Amino acid sequence: MRKQRLQADLVLLLVALIWGVSIVLQHIAAAEVQAYMFNGVRFLLGVIVILPFAIHEASGIAVPDGDRSSIEVVSLARLLPVKYLPGVFLTGLLLAAGSAFQQIGMKYTTASNAGFITGLYVVFVPIFLTFGGLRKVPRPMVWIAALLSACGLFLLSTSGHFRVNRGDLLVLAGSVFWALHVILVDWMVRRVRVMQFVVGQSLVCGLVSLVVGMYLEPQALQPIVSYWWLLAYTGIIAVGVGFTFQAVGQRMAPPADTAIILSMESVFAAIGGWLFLAESLTPLQLLGGGIILLGMMVAQSDVILGKRLT
Predict the structure, then answer these.
(1) Would you write out the chain's pLDDT as a tens digit for each of its 310 residues?
(2) Helix 283-299 crosses helix 255-262 at what angle (to 10 degrees)?
(3) CB atoms within 10 A of CB 176
(4) Where are the domains of the chain?
């Protein structure tokens, strides 16, 4: 069991790295292409990559009567059990909302800020678990972590000056949906096969984003084609590989554990912003980022100390 947990944690750490790099590329895309159309295309690209594996997982390749050219037709019900369709649909909507707020917000903030603020879902997850009925009273450490993160967010977003950064607020709204997404994924992957689930949620997210994009951004498709290399990574790697590995890791890791490991995404995004976008942070912003990371660690102090409560 311990070995399986270690493997799950390493898989989730790889996901954090993949998504940290993705934030840097999404920041580049935010300045050039419209958010909804970009998200729609990249998630549907991820579906195309994962779908063959989902079909194989659902049924395998049948070879009846020794005829190796014959392939079993997979019914929709077998590919995705009907009773779990509402859960998959809701997960896809949460994914679409989180991705939209994050992508739109990146147009008005830096990749470093976006990465750190997105990581605040590590604080939201235990809070939502508490008010979701899994805890009677929030642990004191949760509130301490929330206060630390709020202070860190203020310094990171404002450099100590009271002003509202539109992009940071949008990314923060997205982190709320990411937290809800992590919690629901934990419930779903214990009931639905991983590949089926990832295809379902990505398909919902992609279609919803694409429909909204066609209505709000009718001229956005052509610029996207010019940035195919951004779509290739954020679609094939970040969506196809990243969300699949997240689901695999969450089969073993509880949602609170998952959140703290995935919060390393913020660190990788900051490093990527510094290396590839020449982004710099003021001393106060660095202090704010450090306080946010401290809040993340405090929120999961029970896990760090080995006193698991989830």
Answers:
(1) 667 777 888 899 899 999 999 999 998 888 888 899 999 999 999 999 999 888 877 765 443 444 444 344 444 455 666 788 899 999 999 999 999 999 999 989 888 888 888 888 878 888 888 777 655 455 677 778 878 888 887 787 666 665 667 898 999 999 999 999 999 998 898 888 888 899 999 999 999 999 999 888 877 666 777 788 888 999 999 999 999 999 999 888 777 678 778 878 888 888 888 888 888 778 888 888 888 888 877 766 765 566 544 4
(2) 160
(3) 17
(4) 2-57+82-304
- Closest-CA residue to 79 (of 244, 189, 199): 199
State the residue for tokens 């991983």: 194
Q: Which residue has the tokens 């809070």?
A: 127
Tokens of 40: 């729609």
The rounded distance, in Å, linking the Cα atoms of 241 and 23 is 15
